[in-house]
């Protein structure tokens, strides 16, 4: 994993924590997520007018990856809404961020996409996973399997599968762009893809919202209660965050590294919670952050070179 990818993902993690902080103060719903995605779409729509990439000339496998990614994103949104309605964010968020670490590594390995992961990488991923599971605990005695394994886990799994799906599929689409347009710079490819994907996702979400009467009522309430501005702010942060992720995908050998390093959003989110929301900083959270940072380091160390030195 290159230093460029690391810097991009660190910035992305901070922005991701920021938009979740905004969403935490507002009632998460499919219409709210639609506002977020629409804001992102409008912010990046200009790319379609100046990009040298002619999207309509790309091969069919690119469009299949985009459509499947959008479907995974809708799955992610549905699970996110139900999780936040039934669970505390302090419990749901770290778990839904932890599961995709393992699922993405397994998916890329099973599909043979990207460079093979080393044993050191898998070990680091597991350490990050353990650290993420500790984040929602106030004290060590709070740990019990029932906290994680219950009826609400179905919605957490929807979020995790959706996150894994769009990460892997977006990585695949990025690879297609790179193979077809290697002469175009990585940032331009990333912006073009994000703009086109945003248009597709926005259309799908608006079709869902306008088709279902209950969601139309929620949308009217959302606009009437003044949450529209919050959704637009979250959309600004979310769009900048994921555009950096897409750009980082051009500098890694396997998108599993992108997924695991996005967990830097957990310690950043914890810091924002302590400093802005005045939440308690417990020993379990400190240990969780320590494990996450340790696991990230372990996952990218050149273990083959270290073994040769020994």
Structure commentary:
This protein has 310 residues and is mainly alpha-helical. The protein has one domain. It has 15 helices and no strands. α5 packs across α8, α5 runs antiparallel to α12 and α6 packs antiparallel against α14. The longest helix has 28 residues. It is globular and about 50 Å long.
Structural class: mainly alpha
Question: What composes the largest sheet?
Answer: none
Strand content: under 5%
Helix content: over 70%
Spell the H/E element sequence: HHHHHHHHHHHHHHH
What's this model, at a glance?
The protein has 310 residues and is an all-alpha fold.
Keywords:
310 residues; 78% helix; 15 helices
List the helices and strands and how they pair.
Layout: H1 3-24, H2 30-44, H3 47-50, H4 60-86, H5 89-111, H6 119-134, H7 145-148, H8 153-180, H9 186-211, H10 213-224, H11 228-248, H12 255-261, H13 265-275, H14 283-300, H15 303-309
Helix pairs in contact: 1-11, 1-13, 2-9, 2-11, 4-8, 4-9, 5-6, 5-8, 5-12, 6-14, 8-9, 9-10, 9-11
């Amino acid at each position: 994993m290159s230093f460029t990818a690391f810097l991009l993902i660190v910035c992305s993690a901070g922005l991701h924590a920021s938009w979740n902080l905004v969403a935490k103060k507002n009632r998460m719903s499919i219409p709210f997520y639609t506002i977020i995605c629409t804001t992102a779409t409008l912010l990046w729509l200009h790319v379609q007018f100046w990009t040298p990439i002619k999207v309509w000339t790309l091969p069919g496998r690119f469009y299949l990856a985009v459509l499947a990614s959008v479907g995974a994103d809708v799955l992610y949104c549905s699970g996110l809404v139900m999780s936040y309605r039934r669970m505390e964010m302090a419990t749901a968020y770290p778990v839904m961020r932890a599961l995709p670490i393992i699922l993405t590594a397994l998916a890329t390995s099973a599909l043979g996409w990207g460079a093979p992961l080393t044993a050191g990488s898998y070990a680091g991923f597991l350490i990050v996973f353990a650290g993420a599971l500790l984040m929602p605990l106030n004290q060590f005695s709070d740990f019990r399997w029932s906290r994680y394994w219950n009826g609400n886990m179905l919605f957490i799994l929807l979020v995790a599968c959706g996150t894994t799906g769009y990460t892997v599929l977006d990585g695949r689409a990025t690879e297609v762009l790179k193979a077809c347009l290697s002469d175009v710079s990585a940032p331009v490819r990333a912006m073009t893809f994000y703009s086109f994907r945003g248009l597709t996702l926005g259309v799908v979400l608006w079709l869902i919202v306008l088709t279902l009467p209950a969601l139309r009522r929620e949308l009217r309430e959302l606009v009437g209660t003044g949450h529209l501005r919050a959704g637009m702010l979250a959309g600004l942060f979310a769009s900048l965050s994921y555009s950096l992720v897409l750009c980082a995908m051009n500098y890694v050998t396997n998108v599993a590294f992108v997924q695991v390093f996005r967990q830097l959003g957990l310690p950043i989110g914890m810091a924002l919670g302590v400093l802005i929301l005045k939440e308690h900083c417990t020993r379990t959270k400190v240990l969780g952050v320590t494990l996450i940072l340790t696991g990230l380091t372990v996952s990218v160390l050149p273990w083959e070179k270290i073994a040769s030195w020994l």
